[in-house]
Amino acid sequence: MNKKYITNNHLNDSHDHDLCIEDALQNAEVICRKKGLRFTKIRQKVLELIWGSHKPLGAYDILNTLRSEGTKAEPPTVYRALGFLIEAELVHRLDSLNAFIGCTDPSNSHQGQFLICRDCRSVTELGDDEILDLVQSKASDMGFSAIHQMLEIQGQCKSCRAPK
Question: What is the pTM of this model?
Answer without folding.
Answer: 0.85
